[in-house]
Amino acid sequence: MSTKQLADINYSILDLAVITEGQSAAGAIHNSRDLARQAEKMGYSRFWMAEHHNMENIASSATSVLLGYVAEATDSIRIGSGGVMLPNHSPLVIAEQFGTLATLYPGRIDLGLGRAPGTDQATARAIRPDRMQQVRQFPNNIRQLQQYFSAGNSSSDVRAIPGEGTDVPLWILGSSTDSAHLAAAMGLPYVFASHFSPQQLHAALKVYRDKFEPSDQLEEPYVMPCVNVVAADTDKQAEWLATSLKQMFMGVVTGERKPMPPPVDDMNTVWNLQEKMAVEQMLTYSFIGSKETVENEISAFTDETGADEIMIASYVYDHAERIKSHRLFAEVMRGKASSPSVKEFTGS
Predict the structure, then answer these.
(1) Would residue 306 be called left, alpha or beta, if left means φ above 0 and alpha means ψ between -120 and 50 degrees?
(2) Angle (CA) 140 136 122, round 5°
């Protein structure tokens, strides 16, 4: 059990540039940028975006491009990927992309890495026909990234320019004990996707902490679980707003990835029992309600997990209400300690 107070825990945002019903992809991207600007003022530590492909409701496929757009509009909040699906890419190209970001916005760029496709299998094959071979090479490709980012790579035949010497901090993302073993062995900070895959959260965190090996980047385990948050003035209002979130996750269950719909008064008019059970299982770690409700639930969660940092996804149909949800959560986390230094994660 953790003895940390909420004020001692950093809080951050995961964003997918979600396209809502009737909205354009450009509108979703502009809203993400606005959210990042507002979040910086609210004291959030990081603003991360996730790589997804071939989804009508998500506009974050060209993740590094969007991160540059967000970084340009902000001054201090850390900007990063949550994550880049590394088997989809050449490590050199990712080193160049994130090295360029780190050159333009020094001390502000994070690179979270996952091995899932971030899409369906047909699209995954279209992205990279040899993807399954690259999945097996995931640990080696991470080491290659570290080499490209290091100043010591200057004598190599293949160099990432810009990027060399930036030592962009890497994070491992996952939803199982497999990723926990990898993050521990490599001595990297660990992000768990409990916002949609809660089953192995506690087992994975135990593996990570028990097996952790210090590295040049990180001396002690550092855990950042991701959860869903919808906060409003009242529990009733938050539950109503969260019906958009539930409908969006229904799309995951049914395979119908349509733009996120507006709230409904009764979810029973939308889903059947099987869909309801599947969605509610995925959304186990979702904190929905007033500030008081969210504070009580997130306090219990951080006590149970010993989280060093909390990352939230807040999917709300109306942009103004979404901004408000993030503001209320920031107020819950009021008085937080300062963010860990870049040196702690980079060894620079």
Answers:
(1) left
(2) 130
Q: Is 154 exposed, middle or buried (0-12, 13-18, 19+ CB in 10 A)?
A: exposed
Angle at 103 between CA 171 and CA 58, to 5 degrees: 55
pTM above 0.85, yes or no: yes
What pLDDT is recorded for position 2? 57
N-term to C-term CA, the chain: 32
Residue 31 is encoded by which pair of tokens?
């809203």
Compute the mean pLDDT over every residue in the chain, rounded to the nearest whole number: 93
Q: What whole-number distance in Å separates Cα of residue 82 and Cα of residue 48?
A: 5
Instruction: Give the integer Cα–Cα distance in Å for 336 and 344.
Output: 18
Topology at the third CATH level for domain 6-231+286-346: TIM Barrel (3.20.20)
CA gap 317, 261 in Å, rounded: 7
d(CA 199, CA 241): 25
The domain segmentation of the chain, as residue ranges, is 6-231+286-346
Crossing angle of helices 319-332/25-42, nearest 10°? 20
What is the per-residue pLDDT across 65-101, written as a single tens digit (0 to 9) for each? 999 999 999 999 999 999 999 999 999 999 999 999 9
